[in-house]
Amino acid sequence: MLQKIAIFGVGLIGGSFALALKNAGAAGHVVGVGRSRASLERALALGIIDEIATSAADAVRGADLVLLAAPVAQTGAILRAIEPALEAGTVVTDAGSTKSDVVQAARAALGNKIGQFVPGHPIAGSESNGPDAALPRLYAGKKVVIAALPENDERSLALVANAWRQCGAVIYRLSPERHDQVFAAVSHLPHLLAYALVDDIANKANADLLFQYAASGFRDFTRIAGSSPEMWRDITLANRSAMLAELDSYIAQLQRMRGMLAAGDGPALEAVFANARQAREKWIAAIESGTGTTAPQGGQQ
Fold first, then answer.
1. At the fourth CATH level, which superfamily is domain 2-174?
2. How far apart are CA 170 and CA 256, in angstroms?
3. Three-state DSSP class for 6?
4. Exposed (0-12), middle (13-18) or buried (19+): which is 61, by Cβ within 10 Å?
5. Can you say whether residue 207 is alpha, beta or left, with left for phi > 0 and alpha for psi between -120 and 50 degrees?
6. pLDDT tens-digit readout, 189-226
7. Reported pTM
8. Where in the chain are the domains?
9. What's the 3-state SS for 38-106?
10. Fold for domain 179-291?
């Protein structure tokens, strides 16, 4: 039982964390912090939190665990605000989609208290935002990456890992740098592509006509373009180096396929399509069989 938890950001990610822990009987008192009073009051009404903090410092005093579920660009400011009130037994973690920038901000803000910060990233979400989007089973069966720091002790790591396990999650370990490389490819780039396609269509002179005939394929491909623009602006900029590398690779692939199309090379196009289909089916089969939750040796806890 975590007697007191402070959550910065009570929307989909932070709110679902609170609801999952409450449902598991693992959370005593949950204090919410955020920029929007309306969101905090809604979270209180929904039973996500038990109290709205009067200040960041008050929120973390006496807390067993603090979760930062705000956009990653806010990490440094939040940590600077709570550092003076951060007690020795309190562990801080985050849910940010990038890790190298978060670790850099944490080191600058926390100084010799850096060991109390355990970087994390739940691999779950939705295009919906706000407290009403929070789901008690959002993390059930989902991966959570812990990007442990050399300064983290076993107690702090265990506390964060156990909290996520109470939410139903499976714990994985990656370094902050490796984390950012991986998610640039499989998460951050797809979001950028979805936003780019919808923006391109929206800016065409015949956009109304095009959207009128867009159907399930367009909807499925662009679903993630309904996510928070602020959050994805911060993620894209925070992981800029890895994103540029992945974007360059993708542009090169598109150029190759453009050449196939211009040349009328049907067999070459079909080979790309077939390879992609086979890879996707293998990935889906692994997830459905449960083997998709098995990490490489040493990667899972």
1. NAD(P)-binding Rossmann-like Domain (3.40.50.720)
2. 38
3. strand
4. middle
5. alpha
6. 999 999 999 999 999 999 999 999 999 999 999 999 99
7. 0.87
8. 2-174, 179-291
9. HHHHHHHHCCCCCEECCCHHHHHCCCCEEEECCCHHHHHHHHHHHHHHCCCCCEEEECCCCCHHHHHHH
10. 6-phosphogluconate dehydrogenase C-terminal fold (1.10.3660)
